[in-house]
Amino acid sequence: MCRCGYKAVSTGGVWGTMSSKSSVLRFKQNRVFALLGIGGVGLLLLLGGVIGGISFLFPSCSFVVLLKKILYKGIRRCAGVHKVVVRGSICKEGVFAVSNHISYLDIVLLGEQAPYVFIAKEEVKNWPLVGWIAKKFGTIFIKRTLRGIHNGQTRIKKTIQQNKAVLVFAEGTTGNGIVTEPFYHAFFELHPEVKIQPISICYTEVNGFPALSWVRRYLSWIGNVALFPHLFKCGGWRSLTVVIIFHPPFTAGSSRKLSAARSVSSVRAGISQSLKMQDFLFLNSLSKAL
């Protein structure tokens, strides 16, 4: 089932006018906000442990779905993402969704939109508390090898047959939010009639200004950066804006390579569209201010 529409979650984030302040000051982080955000995330993760237990006992209960959505929304706001713009139709049943991957916040952002069953690397299962919550939420864990992906396909197919929505970050790693790496073909070993929905995630604003390339380095969870130091940096900004585009779904067909190529092409086009639109809005607001 697909639900159509365009919505913006929360409001705010005005452009403001250009001033003599440097770009560094425009993107200045607030340590108090960051500490409060980390504290809020910590408390919500404890709550997530309780919700995880309830989810394990009553996996199909609509009340559990609502609790998960509230949890994801709370973590999102504590992490500094105060505005989410959603475009396109969201398919929530019997679909294989694929998205670009920027950081762990992608799970929160997408989990708030639909009751996805996420696919995660096997190492996440051993993370303190987070791994336990992920297991109770029904996450499918796989090894990040071609053989590991192939072995995980059995459970993925079974979950889709149960009319659930499965989501994978098909790059197999995180990126900077602008360049999307080719998707692993092995993820697309699906029944020919399965619907595939590409999703684009793009951070467009930081503190009400376009997210510049040097700022994106802090938004992306790349390399060996620890979880909480990265969260501290994200939570230090007053407001982050994210655009999520749900592209039209298509049937998998018989070619894994073709499905992977078509998906990554849609995702890249969506990111490009979001960035161009943001530049247009900023220049338009600037011209009016002048």
TrEMBL record:
GO terms for molecular function: acyltransferase activity. Its main location: membrane. GO terms for cellular component: membrane. Keywords: Acyltransferase, Lipid metabolism, Membrane, Transferase, Transmembrane, Transmembrane helix. Signal peptide: none annotated. It holds the Pfam family Acyltransferase. Coiled coil: none annotated. This is 1-acyl-sn-glycerol-3-phosphate acyltransferase. The lineage of its organism: Bacteria, Pseudomonadati, Pseudomonadota, Alphaproteobacteria, Holosporales.
